[in-house]
Fold this protein.
Amino acid sequence: MNRFADKVAVVTGAGSGLGRAIALELAREGAAVVAVDLDTAGLARTSSIAADTSDRCLAKCIDVSIRAEMENMAEEVLSEMGRVDILVNNAGVGVGGELATVPIEDFEWIVGINLMGEVYGTRFFLPQMIERGSGYIVNVSSLSGLVPLPFHLPYTTTKYALTGFSEVLATEVRRYGIGVTLVCPGAIKTNIMQGTRTPDVGTPGQAKFKERFAKMLDERGMQPEEVARKVLAAVEKGRFLCLTGTESYVLYYLHRLAPGLTRRLIAVVTEKSSED
């Protein structure tokens, strides 16, 4: 369809999972793609595949949580590509567990990547979008950025913060002709669990909960490619909120209509798992 022909897109976390799927879908749709990740092997694989369908594909191996690296990357990309039309802030990691057992270093680690990485990306690419009077920013959050799910407090904290960041950002940049989409998917078949930091669980019930969650992602999660297509459809139509997966719709609207009931139900699940 080439809906994004002649567009320049930057995608962070493009070395695997949803980030790779979005980068490859953009390439198939005619965009020049800058793939960003810290995983050199995954990044090389993404770049190799994207090169089959895109005439211009760059790879940038950086840590999105380091401000200087993000700022330098933005300067390099703008110098090499001339502009950036679409920024996809996707890089993310997981930290599970209850606050009392999570090492503070893990909390700082996830905030640096999941939140500050997206803040840095937006801050360093936004000025040239404002100057040009056009552009689009996609912030990939999670269902955990809308609903307080159990045993993921650090992850949920970063995703809720990203929801607020995106809502305010959308109101600020609209007058400049810049669009914003907040992506809050449910279960996706990605490798996020492999890199998730989880302290020793306190009960057999919590261990079982972790096992069931990983199994659910593997068995019921959407394919990243399907989610990527939904994300680009939301960008094309200028929709702010992009939900994917039945569970994201059910829990999102339940929490909006009956937040007290949702919190009580989740508290029951948490308590039961802690006592098993």
The CA atoms of residues 92 and 114 lie 5 Å apart. The chain has a mean pLDDT of 89.
